[in-house]
Amino acid sequence: MFMNSLEPGKLCQLAVVSVCLVLGGLVLTSCKGIPPESEKAARENLNRVAGTYRPQNQRPPLPTLETNAGLGNFLSFAVLNQPQIEAAYFDWAASVQRITRERSLPDPRLTFESDIADVVKSLMPGLTMDFPGPGKLKAAANVAAAESEMKYFAFESSVLQTAFALKKAYYQLHFLDAKVGVNQQTLDLLADLEKLARTQNEVGKVTLQDVLRAQIEQDRLTTEIENLKDSRSPLLAQFKAALGLTMEQTNPPIPQQLESTPLDFSSDQLWATARARNPRLKAMEAEVRRAEASLRLAYKARVPDFSVGLEADAKASPVVYTPQLSVTLPVWRDKTQAEMAAAQAGRRAAEARLSAEQIALAVEFAEKAFLFREASRTLELLTERLLPKARQSLDVARAAYLSGRLDFLNLIDAERTLLGFQLTEVEARTQRELALAELSLLILGQPPAGAPGLNPPSNSSSTNPNRRNEP
Questions:
Q1: Residue 334 falls within a domain, yes or no?
Q2: Does a structural domain hold residue 12?
Q3: Do the beta carbons of residue 428 and residue 379 sit within 8 Å?
Q4: pLDDT at residue 29 is higher than 80
Q5: Residue 327, strand partner residues
Q6: Rounded to an integer, what distance in angstroms lies between the CA atom of residue 323 and that of residue 331?
Q7: pTM of the prediction?
Q8: Residue 117 lies in a domain
Q9: Model confidence at 3: pLDDT above 50
């Protein structure tokens, strides 16, 4: 009805104007914004990691797990297969994409107006574009970029935590086998002592009580060996979980060769390295940068936004073009002040958390360094002095028992002392390796061999937690 009231010439004008506006809208939808440096750096970091971790968003072939393979194969398998790492990676990838969304202009709007009485008096298609105030998009992009840094360091932390979980179970399994071996050797020794006691009893030098004491020790040690073997199951489950394998999948082999964590603990740069590389600390620094960017964005709330549009009246002859311009008025000062105050409080909270994390890291570093030094001193004491003397003491006790100058209780005591020292040596080696692994991975943040190109994002920078300058 309305169209019938238009003259053919007006219909053509309306069609031309509408087509032009639609084409203009299509042209705008194919436009691309200009990425800031923070977005470029974030995408470069993502592409670098994706090239080895998820090329073409697909998991690369996993290394073959064999008993004669090195620990590096197992670490690579765990990093590529662990679901927690994959979740952290895609969280980071999503946060990088959000930078583009935050720095982009709002979508343009196609509008259509018409004045209608008895007939159509005007037909006005139009195109409107919103423009946030100067600096707002850049500030929003900086907030998103800092958030993507936080997600990156969460991804890096998940890699390091998985590597530590794998190494922890790996060392515990190896040293569990060592404990079983020590107890089995002692059990064989007790069998020899029992034979010795039987021989002495047969010639009337000792009573049957010595034989019974040897059997009691054997029964106790046999039960201890069974308990140790049974404790292998939960450790194997931990090792399997670190590899990202489900309970339904076949149990993986355990590397035969024990590989220690390489770490030059004599270096004076360890603490400096921990402060520069620790992923938890770097994530806190990124949080401070996000809070600072959020504060700058809150200050931009005082800047008005703009909207520009153009309408064309196709009924008029000639066609009448109506430009439009609107400006928001940030008049609610209490709202703006509240946004700035909240952002300021958020920044100070982030700075306080960073300081708290630095303190906690220093304490953790000192604790693990002490455990390493304690285990090293214990190993030196045992291997160089206590174990040789305990073996010599057992030999002397055995000879004295044969000559009738020592009772069986003292012989058993010498055997228990040697066993205790041997087990303490295994515990010290376990403590030393776990301390080295935790220092290297969780505190120093050194990625294991085979990790997907981990290093801090190039757009990250050190943050001074004591800075109080307003934007």
A1: no
A2: no
A3: yes
A4: no
A5: 306
A6: 25
A7: 0.84
A8: no
A9: no
